[in-house]
Amino acid sequence: MTKIEADSQKPKRRKAARPGEILQAGLEEFAISGLAATRLEDIAQRAGIAKGTIYRYFDSKEDLFMAVVRSRLVLSLDQFEEMVTNYPGPTDALLRLVLTGIYRQFVGSDISGVIRILISEGPRFPGLVDLYHKEVISKGVTLLTHIITRGIERGEIRDGPAAREPRLIMAPTILAVLWDLTFKAQDPIDIEEYLNAHIDIILHGLSA
Prior knowledge:
CATH superfamily of the largest domain: Tetracycline Repressor, domain 2
CATH topology of the largest domain: Tetracycline Repressor, domain 2
Number of strands: 0
Order of helices and strands: HHHHHHHHH
Helix content: over 70%
Number of helices: 9
Number of domains: 2
């Protein structure tokens, strides 16, 4: 490809990458200012585009916020579901693999700011909370239920109270996110040690 041909491709490449750039800029602005206070002008400036360009891809600020959630969390959960469906090994190894992946997505990452926004501003945006519950929380619970059912059927997990309440399996993850958001400066969590402790408790509690 000649230099002229390469230069002619730059606008097309830029346009193709633009939705992702807007999503990243939106995530960064939401994390700093929250949902209500974030302005589309600020997102556009961070993305290096005109404000009107955002409306080519997203109908509103709230629509952009949920697109951030879908791009960073829903897609990951779908990938986990595919992995769980096709995983050939023992259930304890699968659960360890999934929990490790969830920690990488949530704890100490920029996406944790989404959870802070839902907690602090959820009453002002109930529709977003409903949608987040439907597309993220419910999918996560379904995923864990699938893993637990698999383990019970294989005789690797005992069918007891812990197995019937998959939200408890996720509870330490939520605590880690909230702790990191609130007390990171005063008492930071060693994520690796915390994750190992979480997995140890879960596996011993569920083991057949």
